[in-house]
Amino acid sequence: MAQSPIPTFDLGRFDAVAIGSSTGAPEQLKTILRGLPADLPFPIFIAQHLPPRFTESFARDLDLASPLTVVHAEDGMPVYPGTVYLGRGRQHMRVKRLLGGHLKVEVNERPTELIYLPSADELLRSAAAVYGGKTLGVVMTGIGADGREGAAAIKAAGGAVLTQSQATCVVYGMPKACVEAGLSDAQLGPEGIQRALLQLSPNHRSAAG
Predict the structure, then answer these.
(1) pLDDT (tens digit, 9 = 90+) per residue, 148-196?
(2) Catalytic residue among 15, 49, 126, 185, which?
(3) Could you say which of 146, 165, 184, 201 is catalytic?
(4) What pTM does this model have?
(5) Sign of the CA dihedral running 133, 197, 97, 89
(6) Residue 143: CA atoms inside 13 Å, Cβ hemisphere, count?
(7) 57 phi and psi, to 5 degrees?
(8) Which residues does 173 contact at the CB level (< 8 Å), separation at least 6?
């Protein structure tokens, strides 16, 4: 299946980006994040299927590779723009709105019966609940269909969903499930996803003309 044209996004279109990824995605996530500026006016949340012993070191690797601040998510962490929150292995990550409007990251093992922890569906659904139509979901390479239900929640809330193109996936499972369900607004490689996100940086937009 051919890659889509990069969609045009207006400044201020999104308040958060939620990414679900699995097999083959770590290096591709580095490609995306290393080209993004530190001035992004929104947070990025990533549910990457990895064992617990790898997610902490992966967060450090991403932090070194990117101008953005990348953290290994902890329960109760406040949410800031320009920060990437990487979910912990064997624990779900969600974003929650507290009384008064403050946002925090929630990290725990509930529900325990899901196959994937962290679950892309849990993350994407929580982002849709908090940010509504100003949520951008990204579903990347991986086995199975984790992310499809979360993508459906984002679309139902009025947000947008990007999926990784088949030609650039190590395993075309998770993105394919979203595409076949009619939930994908564009199918892009890692560089295309990066370029789509760059449109949302005020300084990059000014420099580009």
Answers:
(1) 999 999 999 999 999 999 999 999 999 999 999 999 999 999 999 999 9
(2) 49
(3) 146
(4) 0.96
(5) positive
(6) 5
(7) -70, -35
(8) 22, 141, 142, 143, 144, 145
DSSP state of 96: E
146 catalytic residue (yes or no): yes
CA 77 to chain centre: 17
Is 63 assigned a catalytic role?
no
Residue 106 amino acid letter: E
Give the separation between CA 128 and CA 112, rounded to whole angstroms: 21
Residues in the chain: 209
> Cα(44)–Cα(56) distance, rounded to whole angstroms?
17
Question: Are residues 16 and 135 in contact, defined by beta-carbon separation less than 8 angstroms?
Answer: yes
- Give the Cα separation of 16 and 18 in Å (integer): 7
Q: Report the CATH fold assignment for 16-202.
A: Rossmann fold (3.40.50)
**pLDDT tens per residue across span 25-40:** 999 999 999 999 998 9
Q: Which two structure tokens, joined as six digits, stand for 159?
A: 């947000």
Closest-CA residue to 87 (of 110, 56, 115): 56
b/e per residue 92-120 (b: at least 16 CB within 10 A) = bbbbeeeeeeebebbbeeeeeeeebbbbb
From the list 21, 22, 165, 184, the catalytic residue is: 22
Question: To which H or E segment does residue 206 belong?
Answer: helix 202-207
Number of helices (H), then strands (E), belonging to the chain: the values are 7, 9
User: Domain locations in the chain?
Assistant: 16-202
